[in-house]
Amino acid sequence: MLIIADSGSTKTNWACLSKDNNILKFATKGYNPFFISNEEMYDDFTNNIPEYLNPKEIKKVFFFGAGCGDGERSIDMSKGIQRIFKNAEITVKSDIYASAYALFGNSSGIACIIGTGSNAAVFDGKNIKHTNKPLGYVLGDEGSATYIAKQVVKKYLRKEFSYDVQQYFDKNIKDSAEEILKNIYSKPFPNRYLASFMPLIATKRDIESINKIVVNSFKDFIDVFLASQKEFKNLPVGFCGSVAFYFKGELRVALNEYGVYDFDVISDPMDRLIDLTGCRI
Question: Are 239 and 251 in contact (CB under 8 A)?
Answer without folding.
Answer: yes
